[in-house]
TrEMBL record:
It comes from the Eukaryota. Residues 65-416, 418-514 form the Nucleoporin Nup120/160 beta-propeller domain. Residues 772-1036 form the NUP160 middle TPR domain. It is found in: Nucleus. Its main location: nucleus. Residues 536-731 form the NUP160 helical domain. This is Nucleoporin 160. One of its GO terms (molecular function) is structural constituent of nuclear pore. Keywords: Nucleus, Transport. Pfam families: Beta-prop_Nup120_160, NUP160_helical, TPR_NUP160_120_M, TPR_Nup160_C. GO terms for cellular component: nuclear pore. It comes from Lates calcarifer (Barramundi).
C-alpha cells in the first residue's frame, strides 16, 4: 500500500526505557584470583542486545522482549527489557576483578531450555546458564502486568565454579592480551571463545557443555611463516613492525554444516575464514580489491575496520566489511559462495560510501545496513540503506532526538521555575518530590548569594532566571553524558531497531509521510524524485515546493514568535492574528518565499493533500507496545505536525496578502483547527497529578458507581512498576493498550510474526486517533475522569471548547465533574444542564443514561437527569438537587410517575434542609397519591421529632386533612403516651381548625388511655387535664352538638396501643371492625372528670393508692375516699353519680365514735382529716357538734 511505502522512507528516534538508578542493579563480583596485567589496556565502552526468536509472536512469553548489555572496563551490565510487561529483578551488574571485558566480548544465545550468556575478558572466559522464559512461565498466552526476569536468581549461581568460568591458558613466549573476541554456542552445547591473539592468529578456548563433565581446551589458528611469505607478507620480526599483519581487528562466527566458521578481518586488510573443525584457513581475500582508488592504503595497517554477518534463508550468509581509511569510509557487502568440492569464495554484492563521521557501530540485516556515527560536534548520526536497491547510494534519514535547547525562552508572564520531563526517569522518587527538592536547592543557593536585604521585584526575577539557568546548564551536561551512543541493535525477527546509549535506550519508529517531508534535510528534500502523499506527479511537485517554502518559514520563526502563537492558543485567542504578527517580523525572507511560491501551479491542491494526510478523523479499529515509547511517539508526531500547521498557516496568510483567494481562505481555517488540535495532543506530556492515588480515589470510584459506567477504566490498585507519568501514558496504560492487544490478537493469523515497523506505526496512528478531539470516541476524557485528573481534564475541555464541535455535551458533563471535584457546585450544575441538550446525540451520554435500572422513564433526558441527581446526592449538594429536579419536572409533563419521583426528591431534600414550607408545597404538588401519603407521613414524623409543631399544625393540607388526622392518630395510638405528644398535636390540629368536637374526642381518648396504661400520680394528673380540655371543647359547641362518640369499654382496642384502623401487620384492615359505640354528652364527660379528679385527690392524699384508683369505679372510689377520710370528695362523687350517701355517713360516724372514745392521739389525728374536708357546714371546735342538716 501507499502508506506502507511511506512508512519506510525514514525513521524517527523515540526515547524509551528509563535510565535505571544504581540501586536497581544487583552487583555480582566474579573473582578468579587473577592479577592485573601490566600496561593497563583499555577498550571503549560498547553495547549490544539479544532478541528472542519468538519476539514477534503476540502474547508469547518473549513477545517484544530482549536483553541489552553494555560494557565498561571490568564491568558488564545486563538488563532484560519487555515492551509488553514489567519485568521484575531484571538488571544485574557483573564485575570481573582485575580483568577487562574485550570488544565483542558478550554473546547471548537461546536454547530450548536456557538462555546462555558468554563473556570474554583479557584473562578469562565465562558462561552464565539461565532459565529460558518459556520454562519459567509455561502458559501459552501472557497477560500479566508483572513477570520475573531470567536474572531473578542470578545471584544463586556460583560464577567462580569451573562450569561457569575459566582462565585463558597462556602460550609460551606470548605477552599481551587479546584485542577482540567472539563467542558462540555449538550445536553440541560447547561454549567456544575466539580471541584475537596479540601475536597474530586466533586462539579458540572451549568449555564443555554445561551439563557434562570436562576440561577447558584451547586451539590456536595461525598460519605458518612459510605460508605468510607465499601470500606476500613477511613475519613481523623480519619487518621490524611491532604489530603482526594478521592481527584480527574484528571477529565474527557462523555455524554451517556442523562446523564453525570464524571470520577474521585483519589489519593487513585481509578477510580470512577459518574452519574450527579442520583448524585451517579455508578462505582469504583482500578487501581493498573492492575499494576504488586504494593506492597508498595497502601500506597502512588497518585500525578501525569492522565486520558483521547476516544470514537468511533466501540470501544465505552475507558479510559486511567496514573499511576505515583516512578521508573516506566504505561498506562492502559480500556473499559467501560454496562450490561443489567444498571450496568457498566471496561474491561482491554492493559497495556503499559514507560521510566522514566517526563510526560507533553498525548492523547488517538481510537487506539493510544500519550505521551509527558521531560527528565532529559530538552529535549522534544514524542512517540506513538497502545495500541492493538504493538510489545512487543515498542513505535514508533517521531523525534523532535533537539535544535540548541551550537556552529556554521564558516569557515575562512565566515563572522561571519551568519544569519539563526529560527522556529518562528517576524511579526512586516521585515527580512531585523531585520538583520540591530541586526548587528548595536552587532557591537556597539563590538566597545564600544575596547580600542586600532589599531589592526590586525585577532584580529578584533576574536572579531567579540566572540561577535556574545555571541549574538547567547542569542538567544539559548530565543529559549529554547519558546520551552518548554506544551501539545499535536490529531484531532479525521483528525489525525492531534500538539505539543503545550510555544511560538509556531509544527506539526508531517509521516516520509518517507528512512528518518525513517536514523533517527531511534540505539535500534530501531537493533530491526527492517523488512524494508518496499523492499519485499525481504535478501535485507531488507542488507539494515538494510547498514544503520547501514551509522550511523557509520555519527557519524564520524565532522562539519568541513561536511562543506568542502558542500563548494565543492557551488564552483561547485565534492563532490567525498571531500569524499576521509573525509575518510582520519576517520581512527579510518574504521575498525568497514569494519567489518559490510562484513555482507552485496549484497551491490549494498541495495544501489540501498535506492537510488530508494529517487528518486523523476516522472510526478505524485499534491495532500494543510499551507505554512510554508509544506515548512519546504520539506526542512527538503531534509536535512536528503542530509546527507544520503553524508554518502552513503563516504561509496562507502570506498568500492572502498577495491577493484575495477564497479557496486559500477556506483552507486556512482547516490549518488553524489542525494547529490547535496538534498543539493540544503534544501537550499530552502534562504530568499526572500524583495525589489522586490517596485523596480522591475512593470518592471517585463511588461517583463512578453512582454513574454506573461499568466499562469506565477505574483506577487499579495494582499499578505497574513504571507508573504512568503523563496523562497520555495514563490513558494508554489503563485504556488503549488493552483494546489494542485484544484487537491485534483477534486479527493476527496463526503463527504469524508481527513486524515492529508495521505494528508500531499502526499503534501510534491509532492511539493518535483515540486522542483526536474531533473523533466521536470519548475514551481519553473519560479516562482522565476515572483517574481523578481533574486539573488536566478541565484544561483539556477549556482548550477544545472554542473550536471542537464533537462531543460538546460530553465535554460539558466532564467539566461539571471537574467543578464538583473542586467544590464549585453551582458551576457544575450549569454544565450538567448544558449537557442535557446533547443526551440523545452523543455516545458517552447515551451510555451514561442506558443503564437505568428503575422503571422505564419516558425520555432519555429524564434518565440523564436521574443520573445527575444521584451524583449530586452522592456528593451531598441538596440545594442543587432541588434546582435540577425542578428543571427536570418541566421535561416530564406527560410522565406522571417521573413527576411523582421528582417531587418526592424535592420534598425530601427540602425537608432535610429544614425548608418546611417548601417541603409541604412539594408534597401538595405530587401527583401520585401513594408517594404523597408517604411524604405526608414523613413530614409529620420529622416535624414532630424536631418539635416544629407550629408549622405542622398551620399547613392547610388541601384534600389531605383526613390523611393527616389518620397518620397522627396511628402514631398516637401506636407509641408510648409519655414519650410522644401526638395526642396533643392532634388536639392542636383540630383546635386550629375550630373542630372542637374532634378536639374533645382526642382529649377524651387520651384520658381514657392514661387511666388504663399510666396508673401513676402523673398519669392521673394528665387524665384530669385531658378531661378538663374535653369539657372545655364541648362547652364551646352549641348544646345540641355537644356530644362525642366513644367505643364501648372492651371494644376500643383489641390490644394495648392498637390502632383502630390498622391490623397487627401495620396495614389497613380489609374489613371494617365491628364496634359497639356510646354517645357521650357533656354531662357524661363531667362525670368522668369528677371521677378522675377524685382519683387524683386520693393519689395526692395517699400515693400508694394511685395504682388502685386508676381503674376504680365511682362506687369503689367512694369507699376508698371514705376510708382515707376524704369525705368531701366522696360526698361530691356521690352527688355527681347519684349514689347513696350511706357509706359516707357510716364512715363519718365511725370517725366520730373513735374521736369520742379515743385519747389525745386520736384527737390530734382528727384535726388532720378534718382539714382535708373544708366544708362550710363543719364547725372546727372541740365542743361543737356535727350538723349535716344541709
Amino acid at each position: 500500500e501507499k502508506m506502507a511505502a511511506v512508512l519506510e522512507r525514514s525513521f524517527i528516534e523515540i526515547c524509551g526505557f528509563e535510565r535505571e538508578t544504581l540501586q536497581r542493579f544487583r552487583e555480582v563480583i566474579v573473582n578468579l584470583g587473577l592479577s592485573a596485567l601490566p600496561g593497563g589496556l583499555k577498550f571503549p565502552d560498547s553495547a549490544g542486545a539479544f532478541h528472542y526468536e519468538e519476539g514477534g509472536k503476540l502474547l508469547s512469553v518473549t513477545s517484544n522482549r530482549f536483553i541489552q548489555w553494555s560494557t565498561s572496563g571490568d564491568t558488564v551490565q545486563l538488563v532484560e527489557q519487555s515492551l509488553d510487561t514489567n519485568l521484575l529483578n531484571n538488571a544485574v551488574r557483573l564485575r570481573f576483578t582485575h580483568c577487562t571485558v574485550l570488544p565483542g566480548g558478550v554473546s547471548i544465545q537461546e536454547t530450548l531450555n536456557n538462555v546462555i550468556i558468554l563473556i570474554s575478558t583479557n584473562q578469562s572466559v565465562h558462561r552464565l546458564v539461565l532459565p529460558h522464559p518459556t520454562r519459567m512461565y509455561r502458559s501459552e498466552l501472557v497477560t500479566e502486568l508483572h513477570m520475573q526476569s531470567i536474572f531473578t536468581d542470578v545471584g544463586k549461581l556460583s560464577l567462580q565454579d569451573p562450569s561457569h568460568s575459566a582462565t585463558i591458558p597462556s602460550l609460551v613466549g606470548q605477552t599481551g592480551s587479546p584485542s577482540t573476541s567472539a563467542a558462540w554456542l555449538s550445536h553440541r552445547g560447547e561454549a567456544h571463545y575466539a580471541l584475537a591473539s596479540p601475536v597474530g592468529g586466533i586462539m579458540v578456548v572451549t568449555l564443555p557443555p554445561h551439563d557434562t563433565q570436562g576440561s577447558v581446551s584451547m586451539v590456536e589458528l595461525k598460519r605458518s611463516s612459510m605460508m605468510q611469505r607465499l601470500s606476500g607478507w613477511m613475519p613481523t620480526a623480519i619487518r621490524g613492525d611491532q604489530s603482526p599483519a594478521d592481527l584480527a581487528l574484528s571477529l565474527a562466527v557462523r555455524e554451517l554444516e556442523e562446523d564453525s566458521f570464524i571470520f577474521a578481518l585483519c589489519q593487513d586488510h585481509r578477510l580470512r575464514m577459518w574452519s574450527l573443525r579442520e583448524q585451517a584457513c579455508l578462505l582469504e581475500a583482500d578487501v581493498l580489491e573492492y575499494m576504488p582508488a586504494c593506492k597508498g592504503v595497502k601500506r597502512l595497517l588497518g585500525q578501525g575496520h569492522r565486520l558483521r554477518l547476516a544470514f537468511s534463508s533466501t540470501t544465505g550468509l552475507c558479510l559486511s566489511v567496514y573499511l576505515a581509511v583516512p578521508q573516506r569510509g566504505q561498506f562492502t557487502v559480500l556473499q559467501l559462495i560454496t562450490t561443489d568440492n567444498n571450496r568457498y569464495s566471496l561474491e561482491h554484492i554492493s559497495t556503499l560510501f559514507t560521510t566522514q563521521e566517526t563510526l560507533v557501530d553498525f548492523h547488517l540485516t538481510s537487506t539493510d545496513i544500519w550505521g551509527l556515527w558521531v560527528d565532529d560536534s559530538n552529535t549522534t548520526v544514524v542512517k540506513y540503506i538497502n545495500f541492493e536497491h538504493n538510489t545512487a547510494g543515498q542513505w535514508n534519514q533517521v531523525f534523532v532526538q535533537p539535544p535540548p535547547e541551550e537556552e529556554v525562552h521564558i516569557g515575562v508572564d512565566q515563572d522561571p521555575r519551568i519544569y519539563r520531563r526529560g527522556s529518562e526517569r528517576v524511579t526512586d522518587v516521585s515527580w512531585e518530590t523531585l520538583k520540591k527538592e530541586v526548587t528548595v536547592a536552587v532557591e537556597s543557593e539563590l538566597q545564600s548569594s544575596v547580600t542586600e536585604f532589599e531589592f526590586s521585584q525585577e532584580e529578584y526575577r533576574q536572579l531567579q532566571v540566572e540561577f535556574w539557568s545555571k541549574f538547567y546548564a547542569c542538567c544539559l551536561q548530565y543529559q549529554e553524558s547519558l546520551s552518548m551512543p554506544l551501539g545499535l541493535t536490529v531484531s532479525h525477527h521483528t525489525g525492531l531497531v534500538c539505539l543503545l546509549k550510555k544511560g538509556l535506550v531509544s527506539f526508531l519508529l517509521p516516520c509518517f509521510a507528512v512528518d518525513h517531508l517536514y523533517l527531511s534535510y534540505d539535500e534530501y528534500l531537493f533530491s526527492e524524485d517523488e512524494t508518496l502523499v499523492t499519485e499525481d506527479p504535478e501535485v507531488g511537485r507542488d507539494v515538494l515546493q510547498l514544503v520547501q517554502c514551509l522550511r523557509l518559514v520555519s527557519d524564520a520563526v524565532s522562539g519568541e514568535m513561536a511562543y506568542e502563537m502558542e500563548k494565543a492558543l492557551e488564552h483561547l485567542q485565534s492563532p490567525e492574528k498571531a500569524a499576521e504578527l509573525v509575518l510582520e517580523n519576517i520581512d527579510n525572507v518574504i521575498e525568497d518565499i514569494q519567489n518559490k511560491l510562484q513555482d507552485i501551479r496549484n497551491p490549494m491542491a498541495a495544501m489540501m493533500v498535506l492537510l488530508r494526510e494529517m487528518d486523523l478523523e476516522t472510526d478505524s479499529e485499534l491495532t500494543p507496545s510499551e507505554v512510554s515509547v508509544i506515548c512519546q511517539a504520539v506526542c512527538h508526531m503531534a509536535m512536528t505536525r503542530a509546527l507544520f500547521c503553524r508554518d502552513l498557516l503563516i504561509l496562507q496568510k502570506l498568500y492572502l496578502r498577495f491577493g484575495d483567494n477564497v479557496q486559500i481562505f477556506n483552507s486556512s481555517s482547516v490549518a488553524e483547527e489542525k494547529y490547535q488540535i496538534f498543539c493540544l495532543v503534544k501537550d499530552g506530556i502534562t504530568p499526572v497529578t500524583s495525589d489522586f492515588l490517596c485523596c480522591f480515589r475512593d470518592a471517585n470510584l463511588q461517583h463512578l458507581t453512582v454513574l454506573e459506567l461499568s466499562d469506565t477504566p477505574a483506577l487499579s490498585t495494582n499499578r505497574s512498576v513504571l507508573s504512568p507519568q503523563t496523562v497520555v501514558e495514563l490513558f494508554y496504560q489503563t485504556v488503549a493498550r488493552k483494546m489494542i492487544i485484544s484487537q491485534i490478537y483477534s486479527q493476527q493469523q496463526s503463527n504469524s510474526l508481527l513486524l515492529w515497523t508495521h505494528m508500531v506505526s499502526n499503534v501510534v496512528h491509532l492511539l493518535a486517533q483515540l486522542l483526536w478531539p474531533s473523533n466521536p470516541g470519548f475514551q481519553f476524557p473519560e479516562c482522565l475522569m476515572a483517574n481523578c485528573q481533574y486539573t488536566q481534564l478541565q484544561e483539556y475541555v477549556r482548550l477544545i471548547g472554542p473550536w471542537c464541535q464533537v462531543n460538546i455535551g460530553s465535554c460539558r458533563f466532564m467539566l461539571g465533574q471537574c467543578y464538583l471535584a473542586n467544590g464549585e457546585g453551582q458551576k457544575a450544575l450549569q454544565c450538567f444542564q448544558e449537557a442535557a441538550t446533547e443526551v440523545e446525540k452523543e455516545e458517552f451520554l447515551m451510555r451514561l443514561t442506558g443503564t437505568e435500572e428503575e422503571e422505564a422513564v419516558s425520555t432519555t433526558r429524564l434518565q440523564y437527569y436521574n443520573k445527575v441527581l444521584r451524583l449530586l446526592e452522592d456528593v451531598g449538594l441538596p440545594e442543587l438537587v432541588i434546582q435540577l429536579a425542578s428543571l427536570a419536572i418541566t421535561e416530564a409533563v406527560s410522565d406522571v410517575s417521573s413527576q411523582a419521583a421528582l417531587w418526592t426528591r424535592i420534598f425530601k431534600h427540602h425537608l432535610d434542609l429544614g425548608h418546611n414550607s417548601e417541603a409541604y408545597e412539594a408534597l401538595i404538588q405530587n401527583p401520585d397519591s401513594s408517594m404523597q401519603l408517604d411524604c405526608l407521613r414523613q413530614l409529620v414524623v420529622v416535624l414532630c421529632e424536631r418539635s416544629q409543631l407550629q408549622d405542622l399544625v398551620q399547613f392547610s393540607y388541601v384534600n389531605l386533612h383526613d390523611e393527616v388526622v389518620s397518620i397522627i392518630e396511628s402514631r398516637a395510638r401506636g407509641l408510648d403516651l409519655l414519650a410522644h405528644n401526638y395526642y396533643e398535636l392532634l388536639y392542636a390540629f383540630h383546635i386550629n381548625r375550630h373542630n372542637y368536637r374532634k378536639a374533645g374526642t382526642v382529649m377524651f381518648e387520651l384520658g381514657m388511655r392514661l387511666g388504663r396504661e399510666v396508673r401513676t400520680r402523673l398519669g392521673l394528673q394528665k387524665q384530669v387535664n385531658c378531661y378538663l380540655a374535653a369539657l372545655n371543647c364541648l362547652r364551646l359547641i352549641r348544646p345540641e352538638y355537644a356530644w362525642i362518640v366513644q367505643p364501648a369499654s372492651g371494644a376500643v382496642y383489641e390490644r394495648p396501643g392498637a390502632s383502630p384502623k390498622r391490623n397487627s401487620e401495620g396495614e389497613f384492615s380489609s374489613e371494617p371492625v365491628k364496634r359497639q359505640v356510646d354517645i357521650l354528652e357533656l354531662k357524661d364527660l363531667e362525670k368522668e372528670y369528677v371521677l378522675s379528679r377524685s382519683r387524683l385527690t386520693l393519689a395526692q392524699h395517699h400515693p400508694p393508692s394511685a395504682a388502685i384508683a386508676g381503674s376504680a369505679t365511682a362506687v369503689e372510689m367512694v369507699a376508698l375516699l371514705v376510708q382515707s377520710g376524704l369525705f368531701d370528695s366522696a360526698l361530691s362523687l356521690c352527688q355527681t353519680f347519684r349514689l347513696s350517701l350511706t357509706p359516707v355517713f357510716e364512715g363519718l360516724a365511725f370517725k366520730c365514735v373513735r374521736l369520742q372514745f379515743g385519747g389525745e392521739e386520736t384527737q390530734n389525728e382528727a384535726w388532720s382529716w378534718l382539714a382535708d374536708n373544708q366544708l362550710s357546714s363543719v364547725v372546727n371546735t372541740k365542743e361543737s357538734r356535727f350538723d349535716f342538716s344541709d
